Amino acid sequence: MLPYETIAAAESTMGRNLTAAEALWFRYSARMPDYLLYCHNIFFLFVIFTLVPLPLALLEVRLPSVLAPYKLQPKVHLPTSSFFQCYKDVMRVFLLVVGPLQLFSYPSKKFVGIRTGLPLPSAGEVAAQLAVYFLIEDYGNYWIHRLLHGRWGYEKIHHVHHEFTAPIGFAAPYAHWAEVLILGIPSFVGPAIAPGHMITFWLWIILRQVEAIETHSGYDFPLSPTKYIPFYGGAEYHDYHHYVGGQSQSNFASVFTYCDYIYGTDKGYRYRKAQLAKIREQRGAGGENGEANGWNYNEKFE
Ligand SMILES: [Zn+2]
Ligand SMILES: [Zn+2]
């Protein structure tokens, strides 16, 4: 809720005219309690995890031949029922765990100082804070994920996320409820260290979820804008982690590749990539209809 009655009062206090974005924010949030603004995140989570993976699921039903070369594990075809089951399980964890956590974590938002007022942050400030959030979360996530691949962590918790050896968009948050909670911690460390505006916090939640869906999409599209982000892992990078499964000691990072590179946990992935490149070069395989794709392509070569 904003401490001004009108836009004119806000402008007179700030000593300048509001920008178009600030006027929009004023109209939307001036009379809305901060608690309600914070709870928008629950709505974003439900909407994103319902709508964003949908086109990817439709591709699984009928894959146009022009997109076939980009499917990372072309031999895997999941039945429609497994998409519904996955969505149902994810929504159950959201309703019973993530939603209530959001409702009750409002005091922490107040404590760290995420603000809702005016002025709005500049685009540069938002971008810098989002970059910090992504880097911090990626580092924390790397170590938690690596620990979850220990015997106890995998058998008790992380095996659920690995039920999909060929990931799908809907399976990005498909995990044991404990994993969803544990991995939520690094997501909040960035905003706690460098608190910003509520809009930055919303953007962070939205972009992180969209990124997770892309990473689990099962497709490596060449025109994805994320291809231009330095050290970005992407769908192919994480797909290999799922393909290897529980024994995987490779590609633990969720967003970038630098942690795996520094700690030497990308060797299996790089070796397999080099092998596949060699096979395709020797065979001259052009990837017609995607039959030359997949981590297990021409296993006999090994
Ligand atoms: Zn894993
Ligand atoms: Zn995954």
TrEMBL record:
Gene Ontology cellular component terms for the protein in this record: endoplasmic reticulum membrane
Region (Disordered): 282-302
Keywords: Endoplasmic reticulum, Lyase, Membrane, Transmembrane, Transmembrane helix
GO biological-process terms attached to the record: lipid biosynthetic process
Top EC class, one word: lyase
Catalytic activity annotation: a long-chain fatty aldehyde + 2 NADPH + O2 + H(+) = a long-chain alkane + formate + 2 NADP(+) + H2O
Annotated transmembrane regions: 35-59
Similarity field: Belongs to the sterol desaturase family.
Name of the molecule in the record: aldehyde oxygenase (deformylating)
